[in-house]
Amino acid sequence: MNYTRVYASIDLDAVVHNMEAMQRNLRPGVGLIGVVKTDGYGHGAVPVAEVIDPYVEGFAVATVDEALILRRHGFAKPILILGVTHPSRYAELIREEIRPAIFTMAQATPLSELSVQMGRKARIHLALDTGMGRIGMTPDESGADLASAIAALPGIEVEGMFTHFARADETDKSAAWEQYRRYLHFTDLLKERNLTIPIRHCGNSAAILDLPEMGLDRMRAGISIYGMYPSDEVGHDRVDLRPVMGLHSFVSFVKDVAPGQQISYGGTFTATEPMRVATVPVGYGDGYPRGLSGKGYVLIHGKKAPILGRVCMDQFMVDVTHIPDVDVDTEVTLIGEDGEARIRVEDLSALCGRFHYELVCDIGKRVPRVYLRGGRVVGTKDYFDDYYETQRSVAER
Length: 397
Ligand SMILES: *Cc1c(COP(=O)(O)O)cnc(C)c1O
What we know:
alpha/beta, 5-stranded parallel β-sheet, 22 strands, 28% helix, elongated, binds pyridoxal-5'-phosphate
């Protein structure tokens, strides 16, 4: 590994720690589904899935393509797609035994027809809208009629049913309890129609941490795998989560500036005294938020170096007047630990008004990921090999 500009470190030991910490908080008989959508919240779906595989009953992703990436890497456990899958992708789903979320007849009918035609069985999870208002059938009599009609279709097997909490990450859990109550009521309506759901799941990370009593058969761990709490309001003391992602760079230039010198676009910072300024070759083009302009800081030799002026697309400047021995190639910690100091993703997102989930998802393709276990590099993943395929190059192939 020789990344001299920037890289994200992914601490796989922390992932294991987080899985074990969550498992200890679950009720007996409740299994975890590992949510690795958006390339594992920006951490890398495949390397994370590899490490969490022994701790989960299956995986969940947002799209067919994300599911196919996991299958291509040999993951055999059930994979659920949490969003809506277009019927044009059903054949791939059926072939690869990927479970779609289904909640309308228009979705279920072509799936049934195709699976019969292919001589296969399509396993599905029903999606139930108990208050999120996003996708899912309504948890009432007409929803129950629909669910039992879907279950009766040939070639379809209802393996599970899920709902998603909109407000489980708040101190006041009453909205989550109401959603849970609706979910259970709906399972009663299904029982009246002789439909029992083998795998029932409601809980997200917030519920795993604060409401493990809503375990049912499975709970879906997302952000907590990656060592972040869903919000400040969610039980930090019940489950100890360790941060997973670090973001590291190296100083590209150091200079002394005189009073009156402006720094970066717009001249929003002007030196009022002699200063020493270091340039960091990372910017919003890497997913490092521009909102940190004049607000954020990095760590150099374990000390805080505040951002001066605006974060550019590919570079920003920091004040190192008070930090000795800063040279070209000196290590810079944008996220993570340096000596006694630490910058958490949550600290940065609070500073710039971004959502912590969003910040890690947005760490860009220009940033290679380096995977660590026991302090040793066990894998790397970069996206440098971009290639634009034209209609002509396709024809010539
Ligand atoms: C993203 C998602 C999750 C995981 O949520 P976290 O807050 O990251 O734990 C669980 N279920 C569904 C349906 C989701 O879309």
